[in-house]
Amino acid sequence: MWKGADRVANWVKALRTPRKDGSGTMFGSKYLPAQKGAVKPGFLYEFPWEPLGGAKYVLFLPFLYIVAAGLDDSDNWAFHMLCIVALRYVQAQFWHFVSRNHAISGKTRVQARLVGFEQVDREENWDDYIILQLYIATAVHMLPWLYCYQGTCYGYRDFPLFHGKGLLQLILIHAGPTELIYYWLHRALHGHTLYAKYHSHHHASFVTEPISGSAHPFMEHLLYTANFAIPLLGTWAVGGASIAMFYTYMLGFDLLNIIGHCNFEFFPVWLFKALPFMKYMIYTPSFHSLHHSRVHTNFCLFMPIYDYLGGTLDPKSWDLYFNAAEGKAVPERAPDAIFLGHGTEILSVFHLPFLSRSFSAKPYKAQPWMYVLWPVAVQLLLAMRVFVGKVFVADKHRLGKLELQTWVTPACAIEFFFKGQWKRINSYIEDAIVKADKQGVKVFGLGALNKNEALNGGGALFVQNNPHLKMRVVHGNTLTAAAVLRKIPADTKSVFILGATSKLGRAISLYLAVRGIKCTLLTMSKERFDKVVVDCPKQFQGNLVRTEKISDGASFDTWVVGRFLSNKEQEVAPGGTTFHQFVVPMLPEVRKDCFYSNMPAFKLPAEAQGFKSCEMTMGRSEVHACHAGALVHALEGWEHHEVGPIDPERIDLTWNASRKHGFELVADEDWVQINGGGVSPTASSAGSGSLAEHNN
Predict the structure, then answer these.
(1) How many helices (H) does the chain have, and how many strands (E)?
(2) Is residue 397 within 8 Å of residue 404, measured between CB atoms?
(3) What percent of the chain has pLDDT over 90?
(4) What is the C-alpha separation between 173 and 157, in angstroms, rounded?
(5) Is the distance from CB of 452 to CB of 656 less than 8 angstroms?
């Protein structure tokens, strides 16, 4: 036995072993388990390397080694195969970007239904076919011979770089045997048994994305690969094979497969009007979309002529095509509510749903290896600023009857702290608000630093500049305050508040003071403190105390934190202290004897659709409290702007409205399961044991 076998086995085991913090494995994630979409998974359903998870990419290493060590053969086979593999990934990524970029593909959508996390997980291993075909093609290439004739044996090798006639032969062989065999194979896969065991996995995706066409069980891919090998072997058999043949067929095949599943129409109408026979020569995204929505029509691979001859061509195919091409299949309409976010650090650009399918489907956390991509991230951000130069649509969702969109300000968090950038950032936001108002949007929610007090007065600047807005601008922080207050236990007698004169800190202080809680506010500004006191009813003003010394926090085991705390400042708190946070970014958890609440966040109601990416560090189907606040504002149909200072009198009202519509406060225990760490004692205080609930 090879001496290194145990070492390799232990390494693979380490790759697959879940981390102690529950965040998944080195290559995998707790959010992306193997998903079986088939009704009754059959024999050879899973790929052989599925147990490896993300470590499956080690299967490319032998080819890399052969190229790097100069051990490639006369055809430079390993080199060309790796180039094809790389180009297949690049092509898939390009079409993923195009299909999810609403500025490019939003006007000619074919299906209105939205993609969710379940589909993203089910299609996570879409690229398994690339590995499979790489190894099968290489195995055939390595055979000593494929056939012998008159004493001479011929192997699958010694290819010229290019053979023009051979490419024509390749196309003809594909259009004949391969298309015909696929048509009947596909119809067979729709038989009850094979459909339940295999093909239902693919059809679980009613609305497809570019990579959906490659999401099939192992057995199906074996059958497809055997069929798709016919043009490659047939062209070789008639003497037309070349290296260019592999590039042309593998990349061309992927392109056509992607086109059928991209869910937006881009074929020009004039083409089919000028050349009507082309309707039978090449399918369109809308043509194949009908196969997914109606199931028993439009079975062809890429050429509808076979459906015509087989009597399975859907009569609605061309009507749907023309409607989609003209923007009538899914007419664009103004969303009811918009939430405006922005980037955090530079690498967060990769978390945009149209830049990364898998990465954006998990809570954002930059991995160490990602910093290699930092220069790429910088270039992407610069491109957005130069070529886009405005707020853009990141994603579209649905909540009951409400149409929702998430827009993004092209700026990272650090830019908001430079006064020289404020004019530019505010112009981005104001232009977006004016545009949304003209479209007929009802609610415009401001997320994170887009509503920074110093930047625009919590959104008040935009309302002042545009007094005739029909749309309501909402910072959503009334619900954020409610979320923080829900976690403070009912028996709390006193709290230490940092960031106390900020928009949120002021509201929380006033709410607590009126309910008899002694609030010590850490602030260096007596003027700002006095303004808070003036807003408090006279009989409760004595509950507000000012201090300039953080050392005074040593006598409090409940801290409400709205600003960053250094390690040294955290050390002041006594053991067992709970840090209730509304600070961004969240505090580093340096005190193991203390508890840290999570970012105020809510789980979306069950009827939420189209949430296929995580809202930065939030868990799946969870949003920041201010985002939930904007949605509640829209659901309630409130007519007031929620900008500037928070009205403490509306905190309970907003909380009750969120509960009525099915929003659930994310408990701290859910947060630590995602991000690691112990369970906060406040995890249960989101219910009847909280101060706010007790006083409601």
Answers:
(1) 28, 17
(2) yes
(3) 87
(4) 20
(5) no
Short-list 529, 510, 512, 513, CA closest to 521: 529
Closest CA to 650 of 661, 637, 660, 640: 640
Q: Given its phi and psi angles, is residue 239 left (phi above 0), alpha (psi -120 to 50 degrees) or beta?
A: left
The DSSP bridge partners found for residue 403 are 398
Show Cβ contacts of residue 621 under 8 Å, excluding neighbours closer than 6 positions.
117, 603, 604, 608, 611
Angle between helix 526-534 and helix 503-514 axes, rounded to 10 deg? 50
The answer to whether the beta carbons of residues 396 and 405 sit under 8 Å apart is yes
Is residue 304 within 8 Å of 317, Cβ to Cβ? Answer: yes
Q: Calculate what percentage of the chain has a pLDDT beyond 70.
A: 91
Residue 520 in 3-state DSSP?
Answer: strand
Per-residue pLDDT tens digits for 14-31? 444 444 334 444 444 444
- How many Cβ atoms from other residues are within 10 Å of residue 245's Cβ? 22
Q: Which bin fits 450, alpha (ψ -120 to 50), beta or left (φ > 0)?
A: alpha
pLDDT digits (tens, 9 = 90+) for 515-545: 999 999 999 999 999 999 999 999 999 999 9
Q: pLDDT tens for residues 657-693?
A: 999 999 999 988 643 433 343 333 433 344 445 665 5
Distance CA 619, CA 602 (A): 10
Q: What is the pLDDT of residues 37-66, one digit of tens each?
A: 788 999 999 999 999 999 999 999 999 999
Q: Distance of CA 145 to CAs 104, 139, 159, 262, Å? A: 49, 11, 14, 40
Largest interatomic CA distance in the chain:
109
Task: Look up tokens 């886009």; give the residue.
Answer: 388
Amino acid sitting at position 226: A
What's the CA gap between 228 and 223, in Å, rounded?
Answer: 9
- The model's pTM is 0.90
Q: What is the pLDDT of residue 3?
A: 44
Neighbours of 305 (CB within 10 A): 18
**What secondary structure, in 3-state letters, does 465-507 show?**
HCCCCCCEEECCHHHHHHHHHHCCECCCCEEEEECCCCHHHHH
| Cα 544 from Cα 72, distance rounded (Å) | 77
Q: In what helix (H) or strand (E) does residue 625 lie, and over which residues does it extend?
A: helix 625-636
Banded model confidence at residue 695, pLDDT cuts 50, 70, 90 = low
560, two tokens: 């409400």
The residues, any chain, with a CB within 8 Å of residue 187's CB and separated by 6 or more, are: 299, 310, 312
Query: In whole angstroms, what is the distance from residue 122 CA to residue 207 CA?
Result: 13
Identify the weakest region by mean pLDDT among 380-389, 397-406, 560-569: 380-389
Return the HEC string of 192-236: HHHHHHHHHHHHCCCCCCHHHHHCCCHHHHHHHHHHHHHHHHHHH
- Look-up of token digits 């969702």: 397
Burial class (CB in 10 A: 0-12, 13-18, 19+), 45: middle
Residue 584: pLDDT band with limits 50, 70, 90: confident
**pLDDT, average across residues 625-636:** 98
The secondary structure element, H or E, covering residue 509 is helix 503-514
- Reported as a single tens digit per residue, the pLDDT across 273-289 is 999 999 999 999 999 99
* Cα dist from 541 to 16, 537, 605, whole Å: 58, 6, 39
